[in-house]
Amino acid sequence: MMINSKLHILMGHKKIKSIRQLAEETSITRLSLTKLYNGESKGIEFNTLNTLCKYFDCDICDILEYEKD
Question: 0.70 cut: is pTM over it?
Answer without folding.
Answer: yes
